[in-house]
Amino acid sequence: MKIIWLGHSSFRIEIGDQVLLIDPWLTGNPMFPQDKHAEAVKGATAIFLSHGHGDHASNAVSIASELGITVYCIHELSKWVGAEGADVVGYGKGGTITLGDVRVTMVNAVHSSSIDFGEGLPSYAGGEAGLIIRGEGHSVYFSGDTDVMADMGVIADRYAPDIGLLCAGGHFTMDMEGAAYAAKKFFDFSTVIPCHYRTFPLLEQSADALTKALPGVHVIEPEVMEAITI
Q1: Strand 96-99's sheet: what is its strand order?
Q2: For residue 130, with 0-12 CB atoms within 10 Å meaning exposed, 13-18 middle and 19 or more buried, which class applies?
Q3: Cα gap 26→41, rounded to integer Å
């Protein structure tokens, strides 16, 4: 498996026979080098969205149309994606999408969700979510945007994720201290990769606190477009 951070909360995950783009915010993402767009999306087989905010969903339609692939997201957001002309499948929390050797289950998160980009006031985009991605003998928990929540105990018990892609920037989501608390309280990760940080000055800029709080866990501070092989 290869996990490639595209900056902020965007990931390219090469797993099994699939190449998944998770919340692929590329255009306008200050961390993503625009000359790497073609490389970042090459061979992608599907797009998954955690919620409707612009720093997660605003490029989904254009990328899906460019590649001729399907977007998978919560039902209400799927209605907007489809109306914009992209191929889309809506599903809900607890639902699982099976793509070849890979299964992607939508799980709960605690945040908000709206289409807050483009013209007009923000519009309802269904609930916010996280994802469990299973393949190659691994279970990956992508937290989406969330605070610590008791539901993480259920997610851990049911799906036993060994890899955590955890939002940890603070201000809009849990911070490094919160992510460390969640990892220790609820999960048994072998690897943790922080995200939703470093993008803007108001977000945390270092994962040192997360690393120090999780001895025995491989905490990897990702670099944009550098593959992490697991």
Answers
A1: 96-99, 102-108, 129-135, 138-142, 163-167, 191-195, 218-219
A2: buried
A3: 10
Fold of 2-221: Metallo-beta-lactamase; Chain A (3.60.15)
Between the alpha carbon of residue 42 and those of residues 20, 88, 91, 97, the distances in Å are: 10, 19, 25, 22
**Secondary structure class of 5 (helix, strand, coil):** strand
Q: Where are the domains of the chain?
A: 2-221
DSSP code string of 87-140: -EEEE-TT-EEEETTEEEEEEE--S--EE-SSSSS-EE----EEEEEEETTEEE
pLDDT in tens, 111-145: 999 999 988 889 999 999 999 999 999 999 999 99
**In angstroms, rounded to a whole number, what is the distance separating the alpha carbons of residues 61 and 84?**
7
pLDDT at 118: 87
Read off the tokens for 185. Answer: 């309280």
pTM: 0.97
* N residues, the chain: 230
Q: Residue 85 and residue 146: Cα distance in Å, rounded? A: 29
